[in-house]
Amino acid sequence: MSICRTCLKTPANKDISGLENDINEDNKNYLDIMLFCLDIKVNHNSNVTTNLCLSCYKKIISFYKFKELSLKNDAYLKSINPIKEDKEDILLDDTEIKNENCSVSDADNIENFAIEVKKEIEVKDEDALAELQSDDELLSVIKKAKYGSITNETKENVPIPKIYARSKKKKLKYENDKNNGRQVCEECGKSVRNLKDHAVQHQPKSERRKLPCKVCPKVFTNYSARSRHYKIKHLGLKKKCDICDKEVVSLRQHKLVVHEAAQLPYGCVPCGRRFISQSALELHMTTHTKDRAHECDVCQKKFRARMHLLLHKRQVHEKEKSHMCQFCSKTFFKKYHLQVHLRSHTKEKPYSCQRCGKCFSSSSTLRNHRTIHSDVKQFSCQLCDMAFARSNYLKNHMISHTRERRHPCQYCGLRFGRSDHRKRHEWTAHQKHYVASAT
Q: CB atoms < 10 A from the CB of 114, how many?
């Protein structure tokens, strides 16, 4: 059963028994951990699920550490200052003894005080006062005598304090400020700044509102996204960074993320990397857990984030290519891919290797090139003695052992083990001829 034990969400790929290994406590197993954190008694013999989703799994580990630290600090503080607690206990005991052992002299004083109060109060009906036998009735009479002497004129002259009611808007802003201006979505558990705009992502595409751009036919779901698109795409409102000469939309955010990463507020404990938001940190944490909860319903490929799944569907299955080259009319899915392709026409290679001086047209090509200068080859094949510096090199090498050919040609159906081999075949065998005849 793949439902979460705590929040009832699916999929729930983490087992409760894994808490024992991640928390690593010698005196507590995973049953004691669940009972200690959530007061939930887990029984594997019953039909109740013992799985947890990734979000609840992390929260239980975090809460366990927080509670253990709190109890440890409380015990430490009590051990430092035990005298103060003893004095408080003594004072409490003395008050209890005084209340329990009320002497006869105290009772006489109370009775004398009541007689004096009776003399001061002008009571019209003396028989009614004599009937007051209980202390509560006597106290009510004293209150009437005290506050009844105040005339209506004096009551009118007493200034009434003004009570300023906080408006709903200010109250909501105050509550958001306490949480650093973020709200938690109950649907997916993410902390977002604008919950109303975020909730649109959980609606079906047919029910979402459509706001078309005033210049181009592109459609948006909120006004802020449309305004940002209009300023960037049509007005060209970009600022140039004085450090790397790159044109960006938000110069402050670019400098903070790229050039001043050490000042970012959210840090990853295992690797030390820092991020600008909590959602970016949560997405990065999936690289340490190796969990891929988002599965494509077409090809069953799994991804760490829902955003990566949507990009995969648009690029692979829907064949979306909205960026066209002005020289050869070739289309691309991402604008960055078009920019790299344009350098093949302009022969521009802005990325150079510091070790050998060789230049490349993209940063990813330069990053792959740097591996040849490193002697460390940590990805080794288990079927032969070969080792590789990158994981994708090992993945391509494994095709020589498995003989798997899962990339068919779209023209003749010939299958290839690697996608780049298929692409090369499509160009040389099918596309090159038509391009040459057209020119």
A: 16
